[in-house]
Every structure is written in structure tokens, then in C-alpha cells.
């Protein structure tokens, strides 16, 4: 929680004329911010499908079966560092007349798709496809992606919201590194956000391992790259 408290905010957010207007925090920043973050186009979320999640977390319909007195977990925790780091980077833009003097989000290109909409791919049972992000552009180092780090992992909850505890669903999606970073095998057991079985590098092979007799045609398997 350090990135939503004053010790971190003072150094990274309370900078420059605009940053000084940001209020001091008595407990933790937030309020209605997570709800608004679902409307920010960053390639993770879809305002029309709040269950997908994003910087503001996932939103699902509450029923009588939910014990609201005990279900107090918050899904934004998995992306808290990413959203706050982006916030800090944008505050640096306010300190320079030349926006090029600060760092910028890369222009992500996956299989020729460079928009912020989700990339939908149909993969038959036992078949494979390749996700290729090698043409991504580092706006701070055009023509060179060596300074960028690529991670690919399966995001269970958006596609299987009722199977959050059933991590075996991940076994039916095969992810293999095709361009691992030098000195690595292209695999990470768990990343800083808490996701497991992470694949490193810009090119990843994805295999549909779901048995053919299973009828999961209405399901979506969400992969974050």
C-alpha cells in the first residue's frame, strides 16, 4: 500500500505547480477513483464489460449469496503499482516544456494490432497461435526495444469469474516463450503483481489445451501481454 500513502506521493506526485495541488492523504488515496479508472483506455479494460477489470479492478453483480461482511478483497491491488507508476510518469510531463524530455508509454503492437481494443483470436482445440509484440515501438528509444520488458500471462477471473479459486483452469492454456530475454529461459514463476506462470519476451506461443468434448464456446480466455 506504500504507493497510495504520503511518503511515496510526496516524492512522486507532489512535484511541480500541478503536483502541489494534489491533496495530502490522511489514510489512503482513492475514494471514487477506482470507479473512474474503468473508463480510462489503457488496453486492459472495456467500459461496457466491467467484469474484465482494469486499473479500477473488476466489477461483478452482487447477489444474496455474497457475504459482504467478509468479502473485502479488492482486485485493484494487482495493478496498483502499474497505475501509480503511470501516474508518476505523467506528473513528470508537467515539469518539462518539452514533453519528449520525460518517459512515455510504449506503442504496443501485437500481430499488427496497435489499438486499445482487446484482440480477439479464435484458437481451435489442440491448435496454437503466436502473439508477436516484437514490432512494439519504444517512443523514448525509436527502433530499439531492448529497454522494454515483455510479460505474458493468463488472467483467470475475467473469463471465469466463478472459478477464482480453481487455478487448474490455467492448465488448459499453454504458453511458451518464443523469444526469451538473453540469459533467461523466458519463464517467471510469479511477477510483482502476483500473477503466476509468466512468459517473458515479445513473442509467445499460445495453445488451446481444452478437451474437444468440453463446450466452452461461450468462454473467453484472457491473456495479458
Automatic annotation (TrEMBL):
Signal peptide location: none
Record-linked Pfam families: Sde182_NH-like (PF07632)
Transmembrane regions: none
Domain Cellulose-binding Sde182 nucleoside hydrolase-like intervals: 2-59
MF term (GO), any: hydrolase activity, hydrolyzing N-glycosyl compounds
Protein origin, superkingdom: Eukaryota
Protein name in the entry: Cellulose-binding Sde182 nucleoside hydrolase-like domain-containing protein
